[in-house]
Amino acid sequence: MHAIKCGSPSSNIYSHTNTSRKTIQHTHTHTFSHTVVEIRVERENLKSVSMAETGVFEEIIEGDVFKYYTDGEWKKSTSGKSVAIINPTTRTTQYKVQACTQEEVNKVIESSKIAQRQWAKTPLWKRAELLHKAAAILKEHKAPIAECLVKEIAKPAKDSVTEVVRSGDLISYCAEEGVRILGEGKFLVSDSFPGNERTKYCLTSKIPLGVVLAIPPFNYPVNLAVSKIGPALIAGNSLVLKPPTQGAVACLHMVQCFHLAGFPTGLISCVTGKGSEIGDFLTMHPGVNCISFTGGDTGIAISKKAGMVPLQMELGGKDACIVLEDADLDLVAANIIKGGFSYSGQRCTAVKVVLVMESVADALVEKVNAKVAKLKVGPPEEDCDITPVVSESSANFIEGLAKDAKTKGATFCQEYRREGNLIWPLLLDNVRPDMRIAWEEPFGPIVPVIRINSVEEGIHHCNASNFGLQGCVFTKDINKAILISDAMETGTVQINSAPARGPDHFPFQGLKDSGIGSQGITNSINMMTKIKSTVINLPTPSYTMG
Ligand code: G3P
Asked: pTM (2 decimals)?
């Protein structure tokens, strides 16, 4: 698969042959769209040793199966089974991880409990020191970890490196923020409440919850893992990580960086396996004291089953981009491209519906189309803008949304094209509320445009969604922008920029089905702690300075 400019008429996606590797070629006929597209997928059957499996990472794999991590050691599951990780680009097995058993999960949580008790007694400065060390080791090994991301989730090469570096920075920030906010408590006196004398002094501090279960999603397996691990550890918790299947190997490498930093035995564990075997078992485990999950609908099911433990959930969005008549259309177009198409739209915070005033819609669509034509489509190794989506089922789902829009009369600004899991970027104009794409989250490179006749219409569409993660508004009138932001039922509104979670210390939260609680480093640290009070009762009232 070679990189191709989107609008290039001479693009030839079928010309690649690699004679140095044994390949089997499969030909599919793909009929949706105006043309019949022939798809040829190369399947690589020879496994090559990559830098991700050598050096300091040698001990995390045996044969061709990566091990799981518990009690400070890399282990093979007694199940004797493994889970295959399919490379979205080649659509062949890239890696294998252990299929852990429920019995192994029990042992992992038991070790976590024991390790946490000791960790809670470890001075804050020492916890911070270890986190800084892990951050440095992670950044030092950004290349092999990024290589896993490229192979497992088809994230473009440069973005994969950025994810690892950003994760190192996030860990360091957790350490710095943690020593400050956990180093302070509150002192309250009783006589501020009616009827009380100053006979009670209340001292509060933040204490850890215990065992935190972290479940990150495939699209940021490293970054959204450390956004849970960093706050959990600095706050004195132990951590059990259940990585997504796609992204598990990058997670295992990241865990090895924590191992190399020298964290106490049992404090961090990483279990891999089938969701059907250990998913519910983990989330309903009585030994788990907190769950931090990022992903899709599964989060709703988890929240119903989890019981009385604090939950932090980020479950996706249908982020609206409201464009007013006075907006800088070049800025809007650039942000629709960045917001809608980066990592092929596989971001919770992607621009997922554009709501543009009719009077400027033609001009905006033209500008966006010009930029879509320049997007590079192809494999992540070549750092293309649009790379294959994570799985065949995801590609099929995206195709279903496109088909539905086609049937119902949306304007296809580009021809619909798909090769395997690779879907060409597509702007759909004249989308109407009866189309699925107006409401559903494609998690793919398709951006719908709904033309509106009033700002109220745009706000109404945004608020009619079950989701409420982020939204954005483009206008030069800051007063209008503030009013619109207040009217939008979303956790965050960006003014004159596309939605985004980062920088990672900003609060990040969704309303409605988009989530529970707030993330961002400070909020996550607070969420992973409980307030403990000690009240000193005096025999007689005492006032400062007599
Ligand atoms: O999809 C995960 C969500 O947290 C998005 O993050 O950094 O792409 O805005 P980001």
From this structure: 0.92
